Queue: 3 jobs
Job 1
Amino acid sequence: VRSAAASAVGRAGRSIASGAAWAWARRPPAPVVGALVFALSLAGASAAGIVFQARLASRLPSRLDWAAVAALLERDGRPGDAVVPSPAWAERVRALAPAGVPVIVAPDLAREDLVGVRRVWLVALPDAPGFSWKPELALLARSGVPDGPRRLGAAEVTLLALSAPALPLAFLPDRIAAAAVTVGDRGCSPEGATAFACPGAGAVRVAREVRDVGGAPRPCLVAAPNPEAGAPLALTFDAIPMGRAIRGHAAALGAGTAPVRLAVQIDGEEVGAVEIPAGAGWRQFQIDTTRHAGGIEPLAFVVTAAGPDAPPVCFDAVTLP
Amino acid sequence: VRLSAIASALLPDGLRRRVALGWAAATLAALLGLSAVPGVSREEAAAMAAGSRDAAAWRDPGAPRPAGARAPALSDGVAAAAHGALAPIAGDARAWRAVTALLGAFLSSVLALLGWELAGLGGALLAPALFWLVPRHLHHALAATPALAAAALWTATALAWRRALSAGSRLSRGRWTATAALLYGLAGAVRPDGWALLAVLAIHALVVRRTAPRDGPAPRGDRVLLAMLVAGPLVAIAASPALWRDPLALVAAAWPRGAALDPGPLVAMALAVPVALLVAYAGGLLHGLLRLGRALRAREPAGDEALLVLLAVAPLALSLLAPGAAAEGLAPLLPAMPPLALLAARALDACARTLLPARAGRALAAIAVVVLYPALRASIHHFPHGAAAWNELAGGAPGAAARGLPRQAGGEAAAAALPEIAAHARPGARIWWAGVAPEAVGVYARDGRLRGDLALASSPEDADLVVATLDGGPRDAEYAGWSALRTARPVAAVYVDEVPLVFVYARAGGWR
């Protein structure tokens, strides 16, 4: 049996080799092969282009799909909810989300605090070119069993309840109207409800703004530090409910080169500080305030530049229970 | 009899010239017809501002250039002069872009003429189509920026150089030499990278000399090069009074801006040209390189091959030396595109002749449909947002947005929001334009696209409406609008394939 099989294999090999030799001897000239490959490549590329263009509309939500998403959010959304579009560019949802439900766009949802958010509505376009499951995985990792996904045409809506929502006692940028700002021992005067202008160097001011930091909108306090040494910029909130920690974020804005020091004081005592190097992105800091938990304390942020060429900084902070 | 005499005077002899003229007329009509639609990008607005300044310099050459002004571009001043003459009859945007449209028509005719010489009637018909059906090329042809002018003048200079080398009589050679020198000077005056043409043509002259037949006279490129070297800068300076006080600004502007290689424009090209055309371009370049290699090995004349390949490759190489060019999209590469279209047209013709020698014409027509249809569809789909056009490799506009690629050139998509604003903005509303150049708003107002009662706001705090354009870059200006209007919910938007290009935000009561 073995020898019969071996001879059969040998015969088959010889016939394949002779067939290949026959085909090789009668192969078309190289220019014809080249032209054929070129024509087939063109046909393939053209077909790919036509199919891509024809399918694109069905891979993206129609007006009806968006209307269904809007109706769902309107019906089931409630305070403490937020909407996360995925991919992040799918911002049509901004125009559809109910008034009390913010839309959150962040480059890395795994590291995002999602302050004040209990539930997330993930509005995904899973068939869109360039779609990634990364946001969904990041949110699944920090939530319980998801509700959904519900398919609404080309959109998918999933409701995720966060396992450990960060529910702050106070979000400090929103309290700027009640703050006092000084530079050195001189007071700064309010400019509307969300900004202070300081005497001396013209650029020294503090304002509540929304800034693009690390590819996401960050509501924060923007402080341009005083270029003169020995005159720190202090932002004092009179009565802030304290918890076990102050958690904040800070980033340097603009093209300055000198680092900036941001110190946190409770009732005049420094409880922590963070150094913000030039060019630093959105960095988190956390300060233990357990011994002040339960109290209402004056809280101050003191911004000091290490040199005259210091950039403005954008920072936020919350007190956590 | 008179009519036929007039017709014969207007219509050039021979099908070759008629095809070229037909392409030129069709291109001019299409570009002029479409030129009022796209918005004005920040780069185009800067060109308009510089053009107005340069046009004034023609009247007063002694006026100093403002410090930090962009590199002088002849096309800016010419566009401003044309705008001054045509605006009352053609409208503001169309008048600014009339010169670009004219140069587009000129480029079409040059492509058709060269296409005919390379591949006959098929080449003449195909080469301009292979160039124009890239949405980004149409985008540049509908803007008063130097990109298309640079492409047209590079190609025309190459054509004149080729004619100067192959001219039979001394008179003809002299005429084409003068034309090449004039066009070279204009190419350098339009965009500084135009000066690199001399190096490209010098390399070409060496190749021509090396592959010239031993028994015949070698074409003399050195005299043409010398004429270009001497007359080119003189033409550029004479045509740009803005440079009369500081002619060395030409050299300074042409100097590479850094040492690091930047593949950005090449990546932009690979992701922006429709894939079928990209394959045709790549096939054409490969075909040209193979023919060039074969000619060099056999010591056969290789002038045309070398010229086309050098013209296609040189702008690609130059773009690598210009860090920051990535932000400009395909603009730095645009001079490479006409030669690539010519090479592609010849390769398609050769492919049809090789596969079906007896029915080459029909085969070429079938291949042309296969290649051009998806590109035509993409051009129509993306108009007037040509800078938002990304190809199938990028995943279209959505895939490009996911990769963080630019969504528009610089605020021009705001024009598409104007009808909504006209319909819904409250009377007398003040608008703050984030990412839109003031010159662009002026053009929209003069063309009647922006309602006359709407005013400019000096800051978001003073505004009733904020129009924010999204180009893939930082969005601080838009977020300032959120803070000022106390809303992040847009009342209107412009999308391409669901990717937002523009958001309009309104203060309470500002939107009806």
Job 2
Amino acid sequence: MSGATDHLPRLLALVPWLLAHPGTPVADVAREFEVTEDQLRADLNLLWMCGLPGYGPGDLIDIEWHGDRVTLSNADEIGRPLRLTPEEALALIAALRVLSGQPGIVDGGAIERALAKLEAAAGNAAAAERVVAAPTPGADPQIVTTATDALARGRRLHLRYWVPARDESTERDVDPLRVFSNDGVVYLKGWCYRVDDIRTFRLDRVLEASVLDTPVDVPESARQLAHDSELFTPAPDDRLVTFSLDPAARWIADYYLVEDVAERGDGGLTVTLRAHDDAWVRRLALGLAGVGRVTDPPELAAEVSAAAAAALAAYDA
Amino acid sequence: MAAERTERLINLVICLLHTRSFITAERLRETIPGYDGATSDEAFKRMFERDKEDLRDLGIPLETGTTSYSDDDIGYRIARQDYALPALALEPDEAAAVGLAARMWSSAALGAPATRALRKLEAAGVEVTALPEGLQPRVGTGGTDLPAVAAAVREGRRVTFGYRGATDSESAERHVEPWGVVWWHGRWYLAGHDLDRDAPRVFRLSRIVGEPVAVGEAGAVTVPPEVDLTALVSASDASGGEAMARIRVRHDRAIGLRRQTVDVSDDGDGWDIVTVPCPDPHRLAEQVLAYGTDAVLLSPPEAREAVVQRLQSLVAGRP
């Protein structure tokens, strides 16, 4: 597309924004519109040349400077923002629907009211009833609300947390740093006093949560770490495990962060993934019984096989 | 060059919003600075056609009609009431929800339009309030062109795409009349009528290979009025039903299973018997398998049989 297709909508948004925010420092406007200050000044110079036919002093858009602060006037015709494009309406409405499908993060009533107003404003552009989000099973909304509440108020949390790899429930105090979600799973990241380190907790594995009266007390360095680090950070000492998967178990490659994937040639896959915890791999491998197995390392393959034999004994088969 | 063109387009928009009567292309050529650069009628016509197309692409409601001077002269104007975003009064908690939603997209395909939309709302006077720092729900676009799929749904156009199902090793071309897009259990799906199979089908967007392409006329797709999009996806996801399963579980173990229980009874010797819903015996088998010697599936027989067979094949070194 031509440069004008980006440039024009920005300027048509800039004019009403400046009318609604008179006297804003130019640096703030540039940040809001994600352009450099130089680009923004060029935009303003351009607008200053525009106006009504006749193009005399009273017809043109007026721009006044007070130091670094800019005020725009005499732009009645384009003084209202252009209505939302279908893509813009989709971007807000679909995200709100997804948000309402993860109850507890934001008050559901506020989402429904906002959706109704946006859909009315977007009009036909939305076709909103054809993009839907089903509630995601998982975390108890009450627990999500407790976590976001502790985050907002800067209070320590007490959690009873299920660790699936070891299949045990643990008690821990956590200073919340982030509550985030990824593809429908809601997580809490925080400073865990049980291990004195940053940990990420899946809220659907939190069995109980309560907000304590203690204010959070996390060193700034740890706080920074919580924002920088990725959801899963593979550690260098993680062990590499290779699985041979039948077609029915191909989903593993979609579901887990895998190091390597190769077609087996018969519709199956060979995948290699990093495992932090042997107990977790044993569980995964047992769950895949009949549709996939560990091929490397061999001692792990033997362990899984022995665990399967022990489990089978309980069935007298 | 680009800046001159933007300037011309802004003057054109202002002029066409200002006018009540339709203005001919010839009159616009004389009026708007920038068209005087056209050296021939042909060159002007090309410029003007491109300008009209750009305005319409942005969603600017350009109207055509006859001028007051003559029924033969076609003129242009912009419908003022359809140009502007209608007034939008959001309460602080509603604005906060919108602000959070606009930052949710992890892909620029919808992140960029979300930011543009937010700026328009702010320009319309909506004050987006601050949220607790660290509150960051995210959503992806399914690894494919979600906006393109949604546009095909909105416009009622057929779509064609390469698709590789969960158990397919090769992708195959699919032809679909799209009915709607559904976010289900953290993933995006397209529900519609599969023209090759002549039946309703559900497609996970992350399994689309390459770009989905809209084909044919807008409005060619008719969505059955009674269709329930979410139900289509949920039906494809599991067999459903009210079946229950009974599992013998060691005390304090298999916490994942215990969280779904509708009933627990003590079975002695450090074991419990838990009852859980079993919509899909094979999925339940997989879940029980992962607990090794800590869980023994008692019923339904189909699920128990699946566990036994799968353990046997693992012990025997298959597959």
Job 3
Amino acid sequence: MRRLILGIALLWGGLGLLTELSRALAGYDRRESWLEERPEYWRLGTPEPARLERCLARVSKVVPAGSTIAFASAGPDQSTRFFEWRWAAWLLPAYDVAPWPDLPPGQPVPTVVAWGGAQVRDPQRERVRLLPKCEIYRVRRP
Amino acid sequence: LSPAGLLAPLGLAVLLAVAGRRLSGAAGSASRVSGALTGLVAFHLLVTLLDVLGVRWSPALLLVPPALVLVLGLRFLPRPAAGARLPSRLGWGDGLALFALAVFTLLALTAWTATPDFIFHWGVKGHRFFLARGVDYAYLAQPWHWAIHPDYPNLMPELFAATALLAGRFDVAGMMLWTGIFFALLLAGVREALREAGSGPFYRQAGIALVAFAVAAVGMGHLMAGATDWMIAVAVVAALPALLRPPDRAGDFEMGVAAAFAAASKIEGVPLAGFLVLVQLARRLRADRRLDPGTVLRLVLPPAAVGLPWMARVLHHGLLQKANSGAFEISRAAEIGPALLEALATPAWHGFILAVFLPLPLLFRPQVRAVAVVVSLQLLFDLYVYFTAPVDTRFYVLSSFARLAFQVVPAILVAAVVALEPPRQKQRPAEQSAGLLQGR
């Protein structure tokens, strides 16, 4: 009886493994058309983070590595904005990426990356368009 | 996916495991898993020392000390006790477990099953430490980095950074391979534990396959590649052999190393380290009616060597987060209960998460009671945090419990298999070795 219990558990576990393997492989095969709007569910190799990566690759060409930059998201809710910011930090490891506009008072941030149509309302900054819905706002030079 | 990216974690893991085994062998431990954890803990202490001294990491600085330990260990330290705890002959369950390990790891290498926390937290830290050639405390101390838990222990990102330094670049597949390495260590630990418990061939084989299936399924379905929860699960499983036999000198060291490894890995590992130490101390007191200084040293020194510098660095850089704890609010039970029920239904667990209820009956089985106490304390601590952390309670439970359960379910399953087996069938490890020698 004890062996039977263990055997059934093992069989169940094996079926679970095969189910998850099958699901994972099916998802992996569809990764290039995997559409997920919410950034907390984006996965590496799927179109949404790849789009952001293309934008941020342009940023790294015009902003020196090692700088602090701020990231502004046009996400409709706080969660989307938060996780888009986290993706930006992942994609820009050579920079210190802060969330715009939630910066500590007095924190100097020469560059703000505006993604997905985000608006940065700061008269002291000028806008530079890099790609559609991918812009940077730099502090104007006097 | 580059050859260097894959060879770097494998090479580093093997070097640390072999060097660590020399050290743990000198402490009387015959466990290979404990040896590997000793190497990983020593690596963490090495990079911590480099950080304290302000020395930037380099491949030579990361490789030469463990290589030196290995060479000196071979020359001066006694050979570790025979590796009878991990017999080379593989059974059907081992084969199934290796299959689960292989499919999980191959999929992990694609990063398709990467945990979101790898992107949002662990991977960012690892990449940053790689670029900074050390733990970048100035970066962690920025006020907006509360999001990456700047106060968490850093062993995982340290391993990521070291791997990238050895490979020459931050290769995601190489980082994912660490999860495969920890999965392999977990299985080796399960094997050692079932053998230590004197389980018969069927229970040993079924037990390791069961754990491998459950863990691989949730690892793929719940996106656990790159997660540090594997390390906590390994720490608990590595403590099993010592918890399943009467307390002894080698067991004290193995428990101490498991505690140190847990404390170096993740914030939940810190209380776990305390529970492991306390349970072993209590067992020692109960068995011997006294505590000799050697026991305390073997048991407390490793986690203290990890925990004290960690706490000192966290306090020095002002990294401690207010969101870690708050006032205990019993009224949260109304939110926690339903959220836990939802978390228990996490599809990728296929019901094995319900093993979190097994420690209660296992407390009544003397052979596995110590294991049941450790995992119960850890689960109770997780619950306590839900009642105190000043965050959205429902979201917190839903986003974490399936992972927190992952830290203890492998050990619970092992204890359940041990408890399920009729006592009369069990053989002590020495008898099993004799059986192997006789070709049985």
